[in-house]
Amino acid sequence: MFTIDDFEGRVGDTFTATAAGGRTLTLTLTDADSYQGSRTRFSLVFSDTVPDPVPQQIVSFEHPELGSFELFVVPIGPGPDGMRYEAIINT
User: What is this structure's pTM?
Assistant: First the structure.
């Protein structure tokens, strides 16, 4: 079970993600933000340089330190670094 502490120090890290249909995304964590100081309710925003978004779905992530995990991500539109995706964690 993740907390905000698992991600705050990883802003700027790259995650390899696999979407439905096998499309591989190279996502950079651009923001890790907790809600009202909560360690268990937080938002993660990732960016992908590919402008064509994948629809909202469960995506399989890989990170060298965090390992393999799945998150439900939603495209939230283009940003300065490319297409942005958000995952809300509420444990």
Answer: 0.93
